[in-house]
Design brief:
- With 822 residues, this protein is of the alpha/beta class.
- Strand 3 (74-88) and strand 4 (91-100) form a beta hairpin.
């Protein structure tokens, strides 16, 4: 029996891949304006309901269709869902509904005119062909219905087709897809064979590595999730990548997504794939870089008028991608930029289009979780994906940020002044929106007895939301008119460009409306006044359900970090507690000898706000003793820049001969790098002491191997600053789980402490000191959060006692006592 190459794809995937053409143009009027998530779905349902009431049983909504076709050794299974099918006497009509932000007057069904959307017709024609095949029809009608989102007005375009016309069109799409299907199948065979024979890229597993690899492989087998706390230095990256590649070789998963919060960890993932490549692994992998970083222009202007790399992009990109897949296996930023420059293509879009044909994608969290910029190429539907989420503790705040939106009154006024000479109608709309901000300001002052100058509401004020919607609609029309009627610049009359502030406000308003569609009891409406500024936010308090829904798009997920304690907290806030998906949690033991870490707790230090002045001198004396015990590099972490500066002044007066290195909020990239470079060489003669902020860029994601860092002192428990928004978060979790203080303050703070402490021991040979300076670290509520490899923590109550402990630790003839006096 002949074996066929099996290809399964949706109508939309087929049409958008084969028929995409023209230039990149993200200005108003581009195709992405034809989708508004929940709002679009609501209008779809409303129009379908009206048609059912009008036509009765003759009208069917959301009709699933498919077609199987064999040609030249390829079995095609193409599927989709028509918005509606209408039977009128002997006429059969396939309907496709699209929601639009543009005025309906800008649309036309004639090819070559501004409103012509060939992809919409192509999609509907495929459905029409499938229905003809299914019902043995000789001819059929196709109707496109466009609905304007604000006015809800509609316009229809209808065309008639014969089965022969539709068949020629459909089979031509399959013919043009043939080379991609064959190439993909041939590579999959090579990839799976190499994955099956792949060995672990190191001679031996570190302690904990085999266990971590095993639980991740089992999650792929079972289609489940795993939460894995693995100490720094265990080799989490390769322990997650290796079992995922093996699972891919067994056909359990189709793609690996390695999701990170920082650029530095993406480089570690690239190195992991490179190690396996040297062992014989054949895998196409790509690293996606943010548009702002990879764009060849000073400012990303994604349209053919301003960017030569956008012009005719879709007409040229397919042949380039095919060549790249034939010649390369690893698509790093450098590789993508090299090809993009040579072929005059946008490097950002090239990376996105190339990712579809890769087996593994290394990217930021937002490519999966962000409600706007997620990879629609993959995540508009469920797939056999494996999600590897590195440093998963960072996902909590990142997810809240992704699902929160903000608008400011100052931006409204600024745009109002700038747009006055361009459009009186738009100026009037901005005036009305500004009036709504002023109404909120008055309400805040009238109700705020404690002079905190903010208010929270359980729903979005209807007039406020309607004003934003109206601004967005009017601005959409204005920007589209400006794009289509752009005058030619002359020497006598130079064209005044549209203010960039208006475009920023436009997209901010668009995102605000997107989040407004999701608004429910997991959100709060927050408005605050500061001077003349009024800020309005849709604050996401609990992103768990959104994270859960995104993870459900894959087959399995592994969320790992050195700090995922307590697991019940992370399961809850990351949508893994109540999910129908099975989530197991593991805490792996540290592979490093406990005697290599001298962990001292200073219960005599009180860092609470009222006692901070009193703590400065005792902290300075303890820090000095730490760096005197053994010359080298040390870091002290503080809860704020203000605390840091005060301590630096006191320390310098007491010990003027000790050089201090201070982190400051004004540092640029060059200064940040210079700070780190100071730790590249050990200071054998005189110790170097750096002061940094807990939870900042130097407290996690920084690798100080060997003697680059001999010790850290952590001042305070890392609690987030008390403020209106943090208190709202506390109240939410207190009401929902009775865990308000823990979820809003204690657990996030302790995470910062554990991350900073993890900078010291990075390998089996490292030895170092960690000082925990706060009396709360000696209480049960914090000791229960200590990882198991901190069980040997020792309390010290004086400088002299600390001197003895450090002397014993650094003297190789003595061993620090493992007993605890807590």
């Amino acid at each position: 029996m002949e074996e066929y190459i099996e290809v399964s794809l949706s109508v939309r995937e087929l049409v958008e891949f084969i028929l995409a053409g023209g230039s990149i143009d993200n200005r108003v009027g581009s195709s992405d304006l034809y989708q508004r998530a929940n709002e679009g779905s609501r209008l779809h349902r409303k129009l379908q309901k009206k048609s059912r009431e009008k036509y009765g049983d003759s009208y069917q909504a959301e009709v699933s269709l498919s077609n199987d076709h064999i040609e030249e050794g390829i079995f095609y299974h193409v599927f989709g869902r028509a918005d509606a099918i209408l039977q009128l006497n002997e006429q059969t009509i396939v309907e496709e509904i699209k929601t639009v932000e543009l005025p309906l007057s800008s649309l036309s069904c004639k090819e070559g005119e501004s409103g012509y959307r060939p992809l919409h017709w192509a999609q509907a024609k495929c459905y029409a062909y499938m229905l003809c095949q299914q019902q043995h029809l000789e001819y059929i009608s196709v109707r496109l219905i466009y609905c304007q989102t604000e006015t809800e007005e509609t316009i229809c375009f209808t065309k008639d087709f014969t089965i022969k016309e539709l068949e020629e069109f459909y089979l031509d799409l399959l013919f043009r897809y043939r080379r991609w299907a064959k190439r993909s199948n041939d590579w999959k065979i090579i990839r799976n064979q190499s994955a099956k024979s792949l060995s672990f890229p190191f001679k031996n597993y570190r302690e904990g590595q085999r266990q971590m690899a095993a639980v991740i492989y089992r999650s792929a087998v079972n289609g489940s999730r795993v939460l894995c706390q693995a100490p720094t230095g265990i080799g989490k990256t390769i322990s997650s990548l290796f079992p995922s590649v093996k699972a891919m070789g067994e056909g359990l998963i189709s793609h690996i997504f390695y999701l990170t919060a920082k650029t530095s960890t993406r480089a570690v993932a690239e190195e992991g794939f490179h190690l396996m490549h040297k062992q014989g692994m054949c895998l196409k992998r790509i690293t996606l870089t943010a548009k702002e970083k990879i764009c060849f222009l000073e400012e990303p202007l994604c349209n053919p008028d301003d960017c030569p790399y956008a012009k005719d992009y879709y007409d040229r990109v397919q042949d380039v991608i095919f060549r790249m897949l034939c010649e390369e296996d690893s698509f790093s930023r450098d590789v993508i930029e090299r090809w993009a420059k040579e072929k005059q293509l946008c490097p950002f879009e090239l990376g996105l289009d190339l990712s579809v044909w890769c087996d593994a994608v290394i990217c930021d969290y937002n490519y999966l979780f962000d409600p706007v910029v997620y990879l629609k190429r993959f995540f508009d539907k469920k797939g056999e994906y494996c999600f590897l989420i590195d440093e998963a503790h960072n996902l909590v705040d990142r997810a809240r940020g992704m699902y929160s939106a903000q608008l400011q009154k100052s931006d409204i006024l600024s745009c109002k002044k700038l747009i006055a000479s361009h459009s009186k109608r738009l100026e009037k709309t901005l005036t009305a929106l500004n009036r709504e901000f002023l109404t909120l300001k008055k309400e805040i002052f009238s109700h705020d007895e404690q002079k905190e100058y903010y208010l929270t509401l359980n729903e979005i004020p209807k007039k406020f939301l309607k004003s934003i919607q109206h601004f967005f609609t009017v601005c959409t029309e204005f920007l589209e008119e400006h794009r289509q009627n752009k005058p030619i610049t002359t020497l006598l009359e130079p064209v005044e460009p549209l203010p960039s502030e208006l475009l920023r406000l436009y997209f901010d308003a668009r995102f605000f409306l997107r989040i407004a569609e999701l608004f429910d009891d997991r959100f709060t409406f927050f408005a605050a006044v500061s001077g003349t500024e009024v800020t309005v936010k849709l604050l996401c308090l609990d992103p768990a359900e959104m994270v859960d829904n995104r993870l459900k798009l894959g087959r399995c997920a592994a969320l790992f970090s050195a700090t995922l304690s307590p697991p019940s907290y992370y399961k809850t806030v990351l949508g893994c507690a109540d999910s129908s998906e099975t989530t197991n949690s593991y805490a792996l033991a540290s592979p490093f000898p406990p005697q290599n870490l001298c962990l001292l707790v200073c219960p005599q230090i009180n860092t609470r706000w009222a006692k901070r002045e009193e703590s400065l001198k005792p902290i300075a004396e303890l820090l000095y003793q730490m760096i005197q015990a053994k010359n080298g590099n040390y870091l002290a972490y503080f809860p704020s820049y203000q605390y840091l500066q005060k301590e630096a002044q006191v320390f310098s007066k007491l010990f003027p001969d000790v050089p201090l290195l201070l982190q400051s909020p004004q540092m640029d990239d060059e200064q940040r790098a210079a700070f780190l470079q100071e730790f590249d060489s050990p200071h054998a003669k005189n110790s170097l002491l750096g002061f940094a902020v807990l939870g900042g860029i130097y407290s996690e994601g920084v690798d100080f191997k060997g003697e680059k860092l001999l010790g850290t002192a952590i001042i305070g428990t890392g609690l987030p600053r008390v403020g209106a928004q943090q208190e709202i978060l506390r109240e939410y979790y207190q009401e929902k789980y009775q865990t308000g203080y823990d979820y809003a303050y204690r657990y996030p703070g302790m995470n910062k402490v554990l991350q900073a402490a993890g900078r010291v021991i990075r390998s089996m040979d490292d030895r170092g000191v960690v000082l925990l300076m706060d009396d709360r670290f000696s209480t049960l509520s914090y000791r229960r959060l200590f990882p198991t490899h901190w069980n040997h923590a020792v309390p010290i109550y004086s400088v002299s006692e600390m001197k003895d402990k450090l002397s014993s630790f650094w003297n190789p003839l003595d061993e620090i006592s493992n007993s605890t006096d807590f």
